[in-house]
Amino acid sequence: MKRHIPKVLSLLLGLGLAWAGPSLEEAESLLKAGDYARAVLAYEEILAQDYGRLEAHLGLGVALAKAGRLEEARFAFSQMTQVFPDRYEGHFNLGQVYLRLGKPKEAAEAFSKAVELNPTEEAYLGLAGALSQAGQAREAAEALRRGLTPERSSAYRLALAQALYAAGARAEAVPVLYGLVNREPGLAEAWDLLARILAEEGLKERALRELDRALKAVSGKDRAKLLLRQALLSPNPEPLLREAYALDPGLWQAAYLLGQRRLEAGDARGALGFLQAAYRVSPEPEVALALAAAHLRLGNAQNAYRYAEEAGPPGAFLKAQAAVALGRKAEALGLLEGLASPEAQTLRGALLLEAGRAEEAVALLRPLYEASRNPEVGVNLAAGLIALGRLGEAELLLREVLQRAPRQAAAWYNLGLALKGLGREGEAERALRQAASLGSKEAQALLRR
């Protein structure tokens, strides 16, 4: 928070009366030294003697805010706006405190008043930030546009372009960004947003050309962000991601994408190092989700469960899979309830079967199979039908499954069970032998009896 503490004014001189309390100079020295608790007490004592001391109101609010006592700081700055309604500092700092309290609407009101009193760059930026956090992207962009003057900084112009982009006004952001990169060619964030907008407008080749221009103008670690954008637009992103990550190991997105690519290629162990590096920098839900998937593939169910939980709702299916691997099948059933994906419903159907709830399993799996004709779903549906004694229906279903997947061992095994139940022993034995030859341990055990 920016501090606005005026120079120390002359102390009160009153008819030879001496005041033994702390001076403003002493209070400000405590504040500058980081002794916030004692600074608060000093400013409070000054205000107790004279509630009209502007510097003491301001210092008290700043000391409280720096000490993390935000509700008290809010009250202090609110009091300052009551006693000095025409002073910019009280309204601006009140807006800052409201932002830290997670109250963007109240912050926007305070910043609006600050803008009225003194239309500074920082006041407009504070107002736009508060409006953005309140979900009013268009209003944030309009506020920054109103405050745009020739002397505004590059940071202000970038904030305007970002606000226009967030408001869906991509075309309006483009001239702002071109003006910005021509004025300050080394500003990587401006080039990055420009390339992103061009790509989203269907101008991918132009976006790549602008990134080539940008990389000639930008130096140091800032180049990593541009290389990452190039990677996102390139058919061969791997070398670009590697270069970006080498330039800036703190660029978690590059590490995450390198890990994700390895995960998609089936190399869960190779993915793990990159994903853990990304997670250390920024534990984003998508990184946690990828870590959960990697650990699950590596057989580490405990870590898979932990990271899936951290991923929030998107991790519910992986969390259920990890719970199954940990033997907590009742918990897994609860986690899967309400998940609409076919994979989640397929797993839920299998767990219902294991729990002896065949009717529920059949009711769940039948529409899934009819929609997808997935052999695995068909096998589980047939297992449910066999458990319910609907053997003829199970036989027809399994023969259909085997037409699509003739090497599905579980289908042959279940077909053997259905035929055995129907009293067709010869056919049952042939089906079981086929299942055993395909690796079904259950079929092998049954044939040995």
TrEMBL record:
The keyword Signal applies. SMART domains: TPR. SUPFAM superfamilies: TPR-like. TPR repeats lie at residues 54-87, 88-121. The keyword Hydrolase does not apply. Coiled coil: none annotated. InterPro entries: TPR-4, TPR-like_helical_dom_sf, TPR_rpt, Ycf3. It comes from the Bacteria. Transmembrane segments: none annotated. Keywords: Repeat, Signal, TPR repeat. Residues 1-20 form the signal peptide. GO terms for molecular function: identical protein binding. This is Tetratricopeptide repeat protein. It comes from Thermus brockianus.
